[in-house]
Design goal:
Elements lengths: L1 H25 L31 H13 L7 E2 L12 E8 L2 E5 L2 H9 L1 H7 L8
Parallel strand pairs: 1-3
Antiparallel strand pairs: 2-3
Length: 133
């Protein structure tokens, strides 16, 4: 019986931890993110220069950026909604990341730091409401 309770408790703790890590990755709060969103770049992709994407992903990245830019009804190379929060919150000029000629306004410093730490993969993972995946 004790083993069953320990196993059940362990599963609950693991499930809760995974849920909280997931919420830290996609949620936007005033707390720093619990985990970083860093993924290894493909071995054949050239290292990007700061503010620019590797050639292999460039078209996809530019399409995502254009879609996010148009989401607010203006195509002015300013993404005014928080790209780290699936464009669900207003961004602020105070938390701006420059990338590929676009200004991405994020909602807080935690989102800005997380987005800036791996901008290429963050843009690739960005979900634009109403856009095709």
């Amino acid at each position: 019986m004790t083993t069953s309770i320990r196993l059940s408790t362990r599963r609950g703790v693991i499930a809760f931890t995974l849920l909280m890590l997931g919420a830290g990755v996609v949620g936007c709060d005033k707390q720093p993110a619990a985990s970083s969103n860093t993924a290894a770049a493909p071995a054949d992709a050239a290292a990007p220069t700061p503010g620019h994407a590797p050639t292999a992903n460039r078209e996809t990245l530019l399409a995502k950026l254009a879609s996010a830019d148009a989401f607010d009804g203006k195509t002015d190379k300013v993404v005014s909604k928080c790209a780290g929060c699936a464009l669900g919150m207003d961004g602020s000029e105070k938390y701006t990341v420059q990338f590929e000629g676009y200004s991405l306004h994020l909602c807080n410093d935690a989102c800005r730091k997380q987005f800036a730490s791996d901008t290429v993969n963050a843009v690739l993972a960005m979900r634009v409401p109403g856009a095709k995946p």
